[in-house]
């Protein structure tokens, strides 16, 4: 079972898969546990912070929400717990996902794999994106014969080019992955700040507005777009965008931020070593028809949700961390030079087993 609390801060996704960490054999149950308004406010206060009382309070919410949702499942052999990224600076302070897998292992009585990103960063990688090895397995699962691409539209966007002709994901040429740019986070922040809403539902606000092309052009001058892949982003790396749209109406600002997310994907597609047969979209942004239409209009290949090939785009990242947990348990790598820029293929993740914290002994002796 995998659990993901993404940069959108909307809630926790949990999903069961059957896997040996190399192939996907099938999918099990899944569940979603949204954060309440009050919880989200605590999580937002921790954004951009590495430590301190704000991060501790947020970590407690992350752990409690996960314990709640994960305890609903039975017959799970292993849990992959991503935790919540509040700060990501792979070239500087590193990367940190809040929440303790050791505490969850204790609470749930099941081994938990966690802290997936640190060792990749330690060996020179970006620490993200990590879903690409799962995308590789999924390309095989859906029987893809030609290269294809997966696009995740979460708070941040990330793209994976997959050549299913290779036997293993770490082989040179099998994958190319990177973060495209901001996706939903700037839109969520805009509607939260101006209208007190969590998202631009179905892109309704963006649909009523006009795109400010000058803002989009300035956005594309950001150094991120001049870097070679692999590359990753902090959720708030493009915080300047909120000032850029400050003078625009609500609808024009939403339309412009949506166009920025789509323009970043277009730039990303230029990194693909060859034209993929199709672009399969996962993550919450695929529910936004305005964003999807803008991406489709700028792409040379067919664009559609992962549901087109029978996958679940709301649970794909949670499934990815179940898959990666199984790889960690088997000592297999979870990232490679072409997915994170790490020096050599490396396995990331700590395994915590129930009983390791010694809470049982401590209680018995008290
Ligand atoms: N019906 C919808 N209309 C518009 N936007 C939507 C809709 N449903 C979801 N979204 C957007 O998708 C976001 C959630 O997407 P998702 O759960 O994939 O992100 P995440 O996993 O938190 O982020 P990341 O992948 O960056 O870690 C919401 O915050 C919202 O902006
Ligand atoms: C540091 C971090 O948490 N990055 C997230 C974020 O959200 C999307 C994008 O940026 C991606 O790089 C990553 O998440 C997915 C699950 C990944 O690692 O593949």
Automatic annotation (TrEMBL):
Catalytic reaction list: 1,6-anhydro-N-acetyl-beta-muramate + ATP + H2O = N-acetyl-D-muramate 6-phosphate + ADP + H(+)
Transmembrane segments: none
Function (record text): Catalyzes the specific phosphorylation of 1,6-anhydro-N-acetylmuramic acid (anhMurNAc) with the simultaneous cleavage of the 1,6-anhydro ring, generating MurNAc-6-P. Is required for the utilization of anhMurNAc either imported from the medium or derived from its own cell wall murein, and thus plays a role in cell wall recycling.
EC number(s) from the headed UniProt entry: 2.7.1.170
Encoding gene per record: anmK
Pfam families, per the entry: AnmK
Keywords: ATP-binding, Carbohydrate metabolism, Kinase, Nucleotide-binding, Transferase
Family classification: Belongs to the anhydro-N-acetylmuramic acid kinase family.
Protein name (database record): Anhydro-N-acetylmuramic acid kinase
